[in-house]
Amino acid sequence: MTRTQFPFLASAALAALVAVPLGVFAEPVAYPEGYRHWHHAKSMVIHDGHPLADPFAGIHHIYVNDPALEGLQTGRYADGSVFVFDLLEADAGDEAITEGERKLVGVMVKGAETYRETGGWGFEGFAGDSRDQRLVSDGGQGCFACHQSQADSDYVFTRWRP
Amino acid sequence: MTRTQFPFLASAALAALVAVPLGVFAEPVAYPEGYRHWHHAKSMVIHDGHPLADPFAGIHHIYVNDPALEGLQTGRYADGSVFVFDLLEADAGDEAITEGERKLVGVMVKGAETYRETGGWGFEGFAGDSRDQRLVSDGGQGCFACHQSQADSDYVFTRWRP
């Protein structure tokens, strides 16, 4: 080992020690291409002042792919089940709220083994309309911490509305 | 013609004279079975105080079938294009708005000839979760009166949000 290699390798080893337990090296969550044509499960408006307002203020829609829909209806999620949290600005005025610009696209994908550090779900966020500007830098631990309250439904907040 | 037939036939003729210009005898608009799995186009919240609050206060979602999606993207609507206006109570509290009970399901279906009295679109509403409790009794003239402001987009308010 050369002297110039050592500092790099030592840093990499240290990073691995820190990062692996946080799941940072888990498979990256893919952008959910085509989700605007998936099933729309539900929507919600979050105002400033809500505990989740930073960063989730706005109107959000939850879209699910076919496996996630089956999961919502059976309680069992196959690997590949995907939830999308599509967050738009909520434009208020004239006694109405309409949809504004997209703030972010959140993704939650089932991978029981791949994402075992975070309950079997991978979490990611994509800024605005970007497909590659990623927002999650802690391996999804922050997302999972909130979703842990939903352990009885495999960490899923959404319920299917017929 | 018997004496017992006459009053009935006279009433029917009178009803036809009154009703046909209003399109009451146009083909009934079918309940949009399966629309919860159609494309979700957009959503909006209407508060009390909005001009459309009676009867449209709440949170509504617009769902479109495949032909209507193509129409949104091309500006030309084939017969059979359907828009659904799914209106739910908007439950406000804790700095958020969540979905409540269903108030009504509005339907707008393209039939250039069938519904020529109302711009080539048939209009209907179904109360709550009912598939047969119909709300439109004027052949859609009231709905169409409001939609006439959108003549440039074939009477459609919705724009597709990618």
Automatic annotation (TrEMBL), chains A, B:
<feature type="signal peptide">
    <location>
        <begin position="1"/>
        <end position="26"/>
    </location>
</feature>
<feature type="domain" description="Cytochrome P460">
    <location>
        <begin position="32"/>
        <end position="158"/>
    </location>
</feature>
<dbReference type="Pfam" id="PF16694">
    <property type="entry name" value="Cytochrome_P460"/>
</dbReference>
<keyword id="KW-0732">Signal</keyword>
<dbReference type="InterPro" id="IPR038142">
    <property type="entry name" value="Cytochrome_P460_sp"/>
</dbReference>
<dbReference type="InterPro" id="IPR032033">
    <property type="entry name" value="Cytochrome_P460"/>
</dbReference>
<protein>
    <submittedName>
        <fullName>Cytochrome C</fullName>
    </submittedName>
</protein>
